[in-house]
Amino acid sequence: MKNNYDILVIGGGPAGALAAKTAADAGNSVCLIEKRPAIGTPVRCAEGIGKELLKEFIKPDPRWIAADIERARIISPNGTAISLEQDKAGNEVGYVLDRKIFDRELVWQAAEAGADVIVKTRATAPIMENGAVRGAKVLSVGTPADIRAEVVIAADGTEAQFARRAGLDTVVPLREMMSCAQYLMTDIDIDAGSTDFYLGNEIAPEGYLWVFPKGDRTANVGIGISGRKSRDGSRAKDYLDRFVAKNFPNGKTIEAIAGGVPVCRPLACTVADGLMVAGDAARVVDPITGGGIGNAMLTGRLAAQVASECIAAGNCSKEALMPYDAGWRASKMGTILERNYKVKEYFVTLDDAKLNTLAESIAQSSLKEFSVLALIKELITRNPKMLLELKALRDTLS
Amino acid sequence: MSTMLRINRDKCGYCGTCVAVCPEDALELIDAYLSLERECIACGICARACPLGALEVVHEE
């Protein structure tokens, strides 16, 4: 094993893969390590992504697109459905991916660009010198080794232990950790062109339950609930089992997974001396949708771009790496993250009656745009009498 | 009386949700199993967050 690189990337998900590819394309020596024995498995994701966002990073390929989505439905506790149709809205909806293939494709591209890829290799601690990260201590198939690098890009997902051990606070508060469970189900009656989101405190407290198609009679059926609502008998799995028993009693589950989605604000700072944090580890998940694939690719790519410049200039201090942190915060993604965090903080306060009222108010609307922002604007327009209550929501727009 | 964290490996989905909420960095998700690697303060936050109910703080006489 080579033990000295320009850039060491920890984690082989979309953030790590984009970081490794971008860094290798820029001429750096790059190593990507993944603690699992295989890239792409096990899946920890509902696999939905907006088309426009995806296309910023990769050309859509039928090999890893499981479903092309034409509409989204938000179903309130009393069954009122808000339907967002691609035909009526000006923009496209999204895809449901096959992450096992997608993640491999991204890592393949990184390898093709020249990055070394090593699986079943876990970073146990940062190599620290004078307060700066200089690489990682790893266990590679059980054998300890040191991998030194000018910059380490931590893309180690929800667990985010590498940055934590380098001194950053990555702990997610219980109430902002979405506790999730998902079944890949087949032989079920679904609308193969619609992603469905079920809301309600009986269905998914402070979260939502999703049915994301992956083919004609196949879908990811999953749920996320707030960690503070999770306890024995009312865990994510319990809610999911109840929904499935009621709605898909004859469906077959061919995969059962769990996962945690952080819906807190992003890390206070995503760089340190010799270190950058990207993707879920940086907590750049959309707090409303829980979507993180696009933001992971964006932060992974940007981190590698800034790291390349800093390595060329011979300075990888926190200060030198700061343009990465400032860059994503100033981006459209950064703006949306902050706004949607506030929107989420408002929505988690709503009881089922209020959710029903709001859903009924816009059920007949034809939204001109397919976005959280368009939905909020419509809610505010349609509920003039609720101005006071909606003030918190309106304030998120300013 | 001592307090400890019990991991039910048959229930665990090795997803790492517990790792991210642990205030002590005591848990480690190693490939396909969860391990208590460092000192646990038995706060129970991980047991709350677990989507599958695989973690339990147990009190022993």
Task: Describe the protein's architecture and organization.
The complex is a heterodimer of chains A (398) and B (61). In chain A, strands 1, 2, 8, 9, 10, 11, 17 and 18 form an eight-stranded mixed sheet that branches. A seven-stranded mixed sheet of chain A has the order 6-5-13-14-15-12-16. Chain A is built from eleven helices and 18 strands. The longest helix of chain A has 21 residues, at 293-313. Chain A has helices spanning 14-25, 51-55, 99-112, 161-165, 236-247, 293-313, 318-330, 332-347, 352-362, 372-382, 387-395, and strands at 4-10, 30-33, 48-50, 65-69, 71-75, 81-85, 94-97, 116-118, 121-129, 132-140, 143-154, 177-186, 194-198, 208-215, 218-226, 252-262, 271-272, 275-277. Chain A has three domains: 4-44 and 100-172 and 266-330, FAD/NAD(P)-binding domain, CATH 3.50.50.60; 48-97 and 173-262, D-Amino Acid Oxidase, Chain A, domain 2, CATH 3.30.9; 349-395, no CATH class. Chain A is of the alpha/beta class and 398 residues long. In chain A, a hairpin with a 2-residue loop joins β10 and β11 (143-154). With 61 residues, chain B is of the alpha+beta class. Chain B has a single domain, classed as Alpha-Beta Plaits. Chain B is built from two helices and four strands; from the N terminus they run βαββαβ. In chain B, the strands form two sheets. Chain B has a two-stranded antiparallel ribbon with strand order 1-4. A two-stranded antiparallel sheet of chain B has the order 2-3. The termini of chain B are close together. Chains A and B meet through α4, β12 and β16 of A and α1, β2 and α2 of B. Chain A: Belongs to the geranylgeranyl reductase family. DGGGPL reductase subfamily. Chain A: Pathway: Membrane lipid metabolism; glycerophospholipid metabolism.
